[in-house]
Structures are given as C-alpha cells and as structure tokens.
C-alpha cells in the first residue's frame, strides 16, 4: 500500500536505536526524507549508514533535548537542509530510576519531565509554524502503556506518559483547523535493546534462558498481555507510519495501543 509519503520530511527523536530507529526506517521505506537526533553521534552515524539503501536524504544531528539551545540548533539545521518539517515523532524519553514514590527525589522528577514532556512541548512549539504554513502536519507522540496502566515502581515515568497523552488530546483540538493531526502511540514490552538487556539480566540472575526470562516477566509483571510475547519494533513503527500518512486523515486525538492487549481497561 502506497502511503503517499514520498518527499515528506520527518523529524524523529531518539532515533539512534530501538523504537525510534525502527520508526525512521519505516518512514524511509515510504520515501520520507529524515532528520534523526539522539545524543550519541556514533550511533546516529550507524543509523545513517543503514538508511542509505532507501535512497532518501537523512540529516543526523546529535542533540540533548533537555537543552533548548540544542533544540534550536536542530531546527535551524533542519530548515537549512529541507526548508520544512511535515512530520514530528516525539520518541525520545527515559524510564528513569525504578524507585518507589517516596524514594524519588525532586530532582529525579524534574529530570524525567525535562526529557519526556518538556522536550516534546518545545519541539512542537518550534515545528508547528512550519506545518501551519503548509496547512499540513502530523505530530505523533510515543507514550507507553504506563500512561494508562501505572506501574507502582515507576511513578514519575507513569505521570510523564499520562501528561503526554493529555498533551496529544489538547493539541488535537488546538491544531485541527491548521490541517495538523496529533496522535499518540503507546507501546508495551517491545523487543528493544533496553528490553533485551533487561531480560538478559533476569536470565543471568535466575539461571534461566532469555526466552524463559521473557515468559517469567510476562507472568509476573504483565499478566494481561494476552498475546504472551514481546512485540517487535516494526509493529510499533508501522502504526506510526500509518498515522503519518494521508490514509489516517480522519484520525486525530487518538491513542493507539501497541501493547499485545496489556492494558486491561476499555
């Protein structure tokens, strides 16, 4: 299916690995030119090399998204290269330290909000004028099952994802008149390098295989994940790519769960 994304320009944050990298690749397959950012130049350069086969223009800008001056530099370089940004995917984020509510410091709360929420807010404010000028835009915020189904040991992370969900709904109402659609994608337990590392740690600790660690994790931590497996990065990236296209032109303010049925609520 042709999603009519050729020559569109997409900015994907946190694109050096995992879900962000997968999203960048799916968009490249559809002919999107790309701006990718993350903190690590080496990882970004590797992604650029891997995307060369799709014959699209890729700009990689190492960026700390908690620093507004670096965000300004990212936007400036993007405008210099492409003159526009059609699609913004706010994927960058952190889970923070897995501590109980009472153990979390004020600074830990501030730090996770800086990256998970404020970076998205800042990027949206800087990108929206370009989208308004062209009367077309797509903003896709990558949230998490935790935004709807909180983990008791991840209070600060849960709250940032809930905030991102609310931001999506709010902006869908604000920006609809400008032809800008805003949606959320909420993954759960996706096979990223981070998750694979977590499963290996469990396997090493318990003296079991990584596959057995996955099953133990699902049983103990994700009993509602009815598909009983980890999701693939491509399964999240394909939903994002659909939402970036004209095939989703009547979809805004929605939260697409890519969670294997993990969230128990309707």
Automatic annotation (TrEMBL):
NCBIfam families: PRK07231.1. GO terms for biological process: monocarboxylic acid metabolic process. Pfam families: adh_short. This is SDR family oxidoreductase. Belongs to the short-chain dehydrogenases/reductases (SDR) family. It comes from Fulvivirga sediminis. Coiled coil: none annotated. Transmembrane segments: none annotated. It comes from the Bacteria.
